[in-house]
Amino acid sequence: MLETFTAFATLPAADLDRAKAWYREKLGLEPFAEDAGGVWFESGGHPFLVYPSQFAGTARSTAIGWHVDDIRATVDALRDRGVTFEEYDLPEVKTERGIARIGTYLAAWFRDSEGNLLMIDHPGGAA
Fold first, then answer.
1. What mean pLDDT, rounded, does the chain reach?
2. How far is CA 59 from CA 12, 34, 114, in A?
């Protein structure tokens, strides 16, 4: 039933102006629309909404992710912009310099200005 409609992620923000500045400065994303519902960004042709909410940063799971061609270069570039990557030492996930290898899958997690957990990954693991 929904297969013909566009799906999009929604990310809560306690401070919408702070979040808008963070996505612009840290990730290099410019909003394409803003209304009473929040701020719309687009990445890779896919829209996502950052909206005002008192519950920002309360989810413990990944809110949005990006597939990248070279995860190490992307981690380094984001670090240069001031992004801090999560470090995990769990039985199923261990990071080294912010990057986890799970089989051939590589992933790195970081938080936005509102505490939402974001991810970049490289499914092939070679990069």
1. 95
2. 10, 24, 11
